[in-house]
Write a structure and sequence with these properties.
Oligomer: single chain
Number of strands: 5
Order of helices and strands: HHEEEEEH
Shape: globular
Distance between the termini: 43 Å
Helix content: 25-40%
């Protein structure tokens, strides 16, 4: 019998369940922050990691501009990063977003779940500002 295709959310759940602690707990917290921030945020596996994107209507754009992608998690050598492909356009007075990349991305580094909790308020503000700038 053919295995039924998992939904995007089921794929994200499966991915997180395969992660080791403390990364799994931290990624799940990040996931909940995004999914409770706005009903127009959805999740999927993109670039082999849980990622979050805007699911509402937008003006047409070149897909290589990643305007729909809000953020993608990146686990590399024990570091947990949250990459905002278009992060340079976000107003972030808290200084949560880091990096001066020529492609416009910005990064948030997290140590563990406690660090995610400590940065939650600023992360929610960054998500809200990103959503406020969507070209509808």
């Amino acid at each position: 019998m053919a295995k039924s295709k998992l939904s995007d959310s089921e794929q994200v759940t499966e991915h997180i369940q395969k992660l080791q602690q403390p990364a799994a707990e931290a990624v799940e917290l990040i996931r909940q922050i995004f999914l409770t921030a706005d009903k127009q945020i959805s999740e999927q596996i993109k670039w082999n990691s849980p990622s979050f994107y805007y699911n509402g209507d937008m003006k047409p754009f070149d897909p290589k501009e990643y305007r729909r992608d809000i953020a993608v998690t990146n686990l590399h050598k024990g570091r947990l990063m949250l990459v905002f492909p278009t992060g340079a356009k976000i107003d972030d007075p808290s200084g949560l977003l880091e990096g001066k990349f020529t492609d416009g991305r910005k990064i948030v580094n997290f140590m563990d779940a406690d660090d995610v909790k400590a940065k939650e308020e600023n992360l929610r503000a960054v998500i809200k500002d990103w959503l406020d700038k969507v070209e509808k």
